[in-house]
Amino acid sequence: MADILHRVGIKSSLDEVYKALTTREGLAAWWTHDTQGESKVGGGLKFRFSADGSEIGGFDMKILELQPAKRVLWQVVDGPVDWIDTKISFQLKQESEYSIVLFKHQDWKEPVEFMHHCSTKWATFLMSLKSLLESGEGAPNPNDIKIGNWH
Amino acid sequence: MADILHRVGIKSSLDEVYKALTTREGLAAWWTHDTQGESKVGGGLKFRFSADGSEIGGFDMKILELQPAKRVLWQVVDGPVDWIDTKISFQLKQESEYSIVLFKHQDWKEPVEFMHHCSTKWATFLMSLKSLLESGEGAPNPNDIKIGNWH
Q1: pLDDT per residue over A124-151, tens digit each?
Q2: CA nearest A4: which of B104, B79, B71?
Q3: Of B3, B113, B145, the CB nearest to A102
Q4: ipTM for the complex?
Q5: In angstroms, what CA-CA distances link A100 with A55, A82, A96, B55, B61?
């Protein structure tokens, strides 16, 4: 098993960060415009991505945990085969004027090349989350930062 | 043991990417201005970082492998305790008009919080490498992208 890890510090309140991770509007403003579903424990969220005007796939998540201002945990129930049954967590804490986000996308079966790509891509999306909360503007798909030939 | 993985695709030749990873001038233009030493197998490179005008630490690397246009492997011989004896590799290959960089910072003893930070920070530095080669301008320290309270 292998995990993708990240950490960003955001000059914003824990409540605001939590809201951006747990509302359709928040998620659509930093990860992907095409976010559907409801963020409640046991419920599901569907994230779809497009490039050059065409849908290129996405992820369906089941919400396993929601601890306000503290922790979010999703399980991937549909999407690319390498993602199925992996889990994604966001752990929040305060340090001086920063809300710290500890991110983990865990339980990849193998450290495949796609995992390398997703690790870099997650970093750019977490910077999009940071930018959304600090400046009011994120870079969600389809306006996301391109990191190579896999978008 | 735990590894940081990344993948970027750069619209540049393998030779240019290799040069940016193996010359003092190249490394200084995307990772840190304060790069000293010589990139030859068995030799060493010293990378130092600063913030707000003061040095905040750095890394000493021993060069273990240099395969032109293919692979670079360093071992960390001095720096933060979590980094000592970890290895850093850059694997290069061509895909259509992109030079693909598969990055690995391997053999962390524990997935400590600092590893989360370094993973995100490596992503921003690899995007700096991409930017340097595609547009002529990187974002090396001290002009690097700040990702939180740990810089």
Answers
A1: 999 999 999 999 999 999 999 999 999 8
A2: B104
A3: B113
A4: 0.97
A5: 32, 28, 10, 24, 30
